Amino acid sequence: MNRKTSHAGSHQENLAQALGVMAAAALLTATTGALAQNEPTPGASEPHAYNWQLERTEGPCKSYSSAVAGKEYVAAKAVCDVPARIEVVGTILHDIAGFPSWMADCKETKVLKVEDDEKDTIVFWLHQHIPILRDRDMVLRSTVTVDYAKNLNLIEARSTEDIQYDSGKKLFRMPSFYAQYRLEWIDREHTRVTYLIDPDLGPGLPTGISNMNIRKIPLRSMQGMIKVAADKKYVEAAKTSKYARWVEEALKQGFLK
C-alpha cells in the first residue's frame, strides 16, 4: 500500500508493511502502551470533522454514528477490544476472499489487481447486500499512511474508477465509499480495532432505512471479526506470516511494548 513514513529505518518500514494489511475497507494504528477504555483515540486521522455520538455498547464493542456535512447518509464506526494478537487481525484483513465469512452484508469479493504485494496495495471489488433495497457494489483501492512521530498507521479504502469492472450482476455501483481500519496495540494478546465507514449509497433511497442499516454494519462486522479471530486457520497462518516477524522485530526495537 502507498505509505508516507516520517520515521527512518528499515525496521520501521517493515513494521509499516506488516501492519499495512487491508482489503474492503480499512485503518490501523499501533500505539505503545495499553489503553484502559475502548473510546476513539483523540486526534486520530479521519477524513471529516465527524461529531460522533455513542449509539450502543455491546460487550467489548462500542458503536458510534455521525452526520456528514453535505450528505444525506451518516457515517458509522465501531471500536472493539479484540482478544487476538495484532498479526492475527492483520492476517484476517489480508484475506480478502474471506471477508464474506465475517463482514456484515458482504456477499462476495474479488481481487482485481495487486499493485504492490510488499506494501499490500490492492484494488478489489466488493458486493454489498442492502436489506430490502437493491444490492450495491464498489471497486476500492486500499492504501496505508504511516507517521511514527504520531504513532499513526492508517489503512484506508476509497472508491476508484482506475479499474473498470462489471460483475454481470444487477447491482448498483455506489457513487462513493470510504472506509478505515485502525489497530491499536493493547498488549501482546489484545488489539483495539476501529472500523469506520462513510458511504454514499446513491439517490432515491429512503434515508431513514438506509442510515439505520449503515449504523449497524461496523458493529456487526467487528462482532464477526472477533469470532473468526479465534479460528485456527487465522491463528496458525499468523504465526508464520511476515506480519508476525515484523511485529516481533518491532517489539525488540521498542516500538511496541
Automatic annotation (TrEMBL):
| UniProt signal peptide | 1-36
Q: Which UniProt keywords apply?
A: Signal
Chain segments annotated as transmembrane: none
Q: Which PROSITE patterns match?
A: START (PS50848)
Q: What would be one Pfam family of this protein?
A: START
Q: InterPro entries given for it?
A: START-like_dom_sf, START_lipid-bd_dom
Q: Which residues form the START domain?
A: 52-253
What terms describe the molecular function in GO for this protein? lipid binding
Q: What is this protein called?
A: START domain-containing protein
Source organism superkingdom: Bacteria
